[in-house]
Amino acid sequence: MGSFSIWHWLIVLVVVALLFGGRGRLSGIMGDAAKGIRAFRDGLKGEGEQAEDTTAKPLPKESEKDKARG
Questions:
Q1: Which of 35, 37, 47, 52 is most buried by a 10 A CB count?
Q2: Taking the model in full, what pTM does it have?
């Protein structure tokens, strides 16, 4: 029960890679969760009431950001 073994460190690295690996993965997961919550709330409102269209737009790619800047 002393220090971490190599297997503990590998598991920690895998978890960190899953959460923060890849551009925008964590924000994509949070965006999907927000869409699900919004859809749930719209479903609770009922069919009689029409909710305004508040669809989330994807983040621009790196090349599109560079074009907008300069």
A1: 35
A2: 0.36
Is 34 strand, coil or helix?
helix
What SS3 state is found at 56?
coil
Of 11 and 49, the one with more pLDDT = 11
d(CA 41, CA 37): 6
Cβ atoms 51, 42 nearer than 8 A: yes
User: How far is 27 from 6, CA to CA, in rounded Å?
Assistant: 30
Rounded-to-integer distance, Cα 70 and Cα 65, Å:
9
Nearest to 58 by CA among 28, 30, 35, 25: 28
